[in-house]
Amino acid sequence: MLSYDWITIFITFLGTLFLIGEILVNMRGIFGILGLGFITIYFYSFLSPGMFALMMFVYVFGLVLIIIDGKIINDGTLGTIGAASMLIAVGFSAPNWIAGLYSVIGVILGAFASLLFLKAFKRREMWTKIALKDQLTSDAGYNSMNENHASLQGRTGEAMTDMRPVGTIKIEDEEYSAVTNGHWIQKGSKIKVVSVDGTRLLVKTVES
Known about the structure:
Distance between the termini: 88 Å
Radius of gyration: 28 Å
Strand content: 5-15%
Shape: rod-shaped
Number of helices: 8
Number of strands: 5
Order of helices and strands: HHHHHHHHEEEEE
């Protein structure tokens, strides 16, 4: 079957689908075994033993970089390098450029298709930061508004700097960054916190 170039798209698709799927969701290694099996078939069918080991290393190394990015760094840099390594491995292992193109397309489609597993299976905790699974809600132990700042609403204080319109205010010996509603407030003026949005304090002058 692998004598047909177009078959490679299905082999690399399934291999990448299950391998990245194992990274995304907790399947106790089942997806990992399936994915590794398909990728092994792909490389073993076209390469000599020496090149087989090399390209398998490059492909798996790409997966490792994606895992490191998701678990530790979370900025996408290593993930991008890892994805490129996987594409290079399958592309250069193909017997001709047409099969190589099909193989690369299979990896790309498999990677995107693996995201569908997130809809059906429990995702690994390492991806909650990137995927923004945990919403910043009070029920989850977060609060979008800093409690200390929230308690400042309605309080009065003094402008420590000229506010044009951003500046520093002082309330009970504590200094905070604040903003006016487009108006300038002179240093030393009495101010009042009229609203709080997160850590953003909106203030206005208070008549003596």
